Amino acid sequence: xxxxxxxxxxxxxxxxxxxxxxxxxTAGRAALDxxxxxxxxxxxxxxxxxxxxxxxxxxxxxxxxxxxxPAL
Length: 72
Fold this sequence. Notes:
mainly alpha, flat
């Protein structure tokens, strides 16, 4: 077994996974932007303000994970 190829396999897999996540995020943003076009500017602003409030108050999934600071 070639150690060089086994060393690069996780990196290649991680890069592939990252690219898929980026593509999914881009597609999701495009779909959301398209869906929000039917609302007024004020309604879109209210939506984004609600999203900001949701994440800033740590009510989102994974908030407890983010709140735990790693020990140095």
